[in-house]
């Protein structure tokens, strides 16, 4: 289950209800998928073949199509990142820049861990959302944020898009980021 850290105060928010309430107040969509559907061999394999990725999409087809029908997504895929990803350090440096895009950024974590750093309301400031398998999160459109991995540097996620170009990142130089 996801946990929140408010970056200005280091306050940690845990527990499903508290996390859900916090994220709802920040207009961040937060849902959960049942990970028992996914064989362990797929959850722990960070070098997925195209066939493995297709299997993951097939296993969560109902959840994906439900999200797509509610929120207008038209295309989806699976990405995996780990220390075996070529140029992972350079990639992470590139990821770790505050940016916005014109589409929301929705990710369903199905393996590994990751963090979204998101700009909240004025009274909250930036906060971290620590994600684990089963967590589904959508950063609202035009909201400054970035994504990075946790210490284990491993993640598998389903991404959904409304259109292929909708998520082109626009960097934000935000003096409030810390
Ligand atoms: Fe983004």
UniProtKB/TrEMBL annotation:
Record text on cofactor binding: Binds 1 nickel ion per monomer.
Catalytic reactions of this protein: 1,2-dihydroxy-5-(methylsulfanyl)pent-1-en-3-one + O2 = 3-(methylsulfanyl)propanoate + CO + formate + 2 H(+); 1,2-dihydroxy-5-(methylsulfanyl)pent-1-en-3-one + O2 = 4-methylsulfanyl-2-oxobutanoate + formate + 2 H(+)
GO MF term list: acireductone dioxygenase (Ni2+-requiring) activity; acireductone dioxygenase [iron(II)-requiring] activity; iron ion binding; nickel cation binding
The keyword Cell membrane is annotated on this UniProt entry: no
Statement: the UniProt record of this protein carries the keyword Lyase: no
Xref: Pfam families: ARD
Record pathway: Amino-acid biosynthesis; L-methionine biosynthesis via salvage pathway; L-methionine from S-methyl-5-thio-alpha-D-ribose 1-phosphate: step 5/6
Signal peptide range in chain numbering: none
Residues of the site described as Important to generate the dianion: 107
Enzyme class: oxidoreductase
InterPro entries named in the record: ARD (IPR004313), ARD_bac (IPR023956), RmlC-like_jellyroll (IPR014710), RmlC_Cupin_sf (IPR011051)
Binding site for Fe(2+): 99, 101, 105, 145
Enzyme Commission (EC) number: 1.13.11.54, 1.13.11.53
Positions that bind Ni(2+): 99, 101, 105, 145
UniProt-annotated site: May play a role in transmitting local conformational changes, residues: 104
Family assignment from sequence similarity: Belongs to the acireductone dioxygenase (ARD) family.
Biological role stated in the UniProt entry: Catalyzes 2 different reactions between oxygene and the acireductone 1,2-dihydroxy-3-keto-5-methylthiopentene (DHK-MTPene) depending upon the metal bound in the active site. Fe-containing acireductone dioxygenase (Fe-ARD) produces formate and 2-keto-4-methylthiobutyrate (KMTB), the alpha-ketoacid precursor of methionine in the methionine recycle pathway. Ni-containing acireductone dioxygenase (Ni-ARD) produces methylthiopropionate, carbon monoxide and formate, and does not lie on the methionine recycle pathway.
Record-given protein name: Acireductone dioxygenase
Source organism: Paenibacillus glucanolyticus
